[in-house]
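Input/output pair, single chain:
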Amino acid sequence: MFGTLVNCVAIVLGGGIGLIAKRGISEKLNKSIMSALALCVFYIGISGAMECQNILIVILSMVIGTIIGEGLDLDEKIRRIGEGLEKRVNKNGEDGTIAKGFVTASLLFCVGAMAIVGSLQSGISGNHETLFAKSLMDAVAAAVLSSTLGFGVLLSAGFVLVYQGAITLCASFLEPLLTDVIIAEMTCTGSLIIVALSFNLLKITNIKVMNYVPSVFVPIVIYWILELF
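Output:
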């Protein structure tokens, strides 16, 4: 869990720096920074999507995962958590700011390949290098996000702790299932979700991104079923 804890601290520190810097940044500059970050997120998503080795597996994963996510309505549930935090923390009367920052940052920090692969490495071999690298990237992203979306970005560290911590603790169980091919398809699927998040940040779409998250883990099940036959 050490790598995940470092990651959470990095998010809080980076987010704190962004909140301090926010005071000296104009609204116009904030919007420009957010658009620049969205473009970077888009690039990260496209780069990861190129890892695909079997597009049919990715398509099936996206379809099945979306059905699961819509059925559970994960997007609504995570937004309720954000809104609950909003009511407890927000004292400035800026409706929706904390919830939006929490949801956006949680998705950005958790959906990518580094969150999954890094957590697995941490749990299986005690190698935290990937999560340390992710921590540095997340700290920078948190600083930029919090300068535009506010305090909710810092609260996403709690979501990262639960999400990555769960993967780390389950790593020994998942290790036999995770071949290089499966990891590649998980990376591709997660990266497509990151692309969707970038579209939301650019205000091109209003996709319920959280409902797609189960798709990331579906390749494990598909390949397991294929091996049985």
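The chain has one domain: 2-228. Residues 2-228 form one domain.
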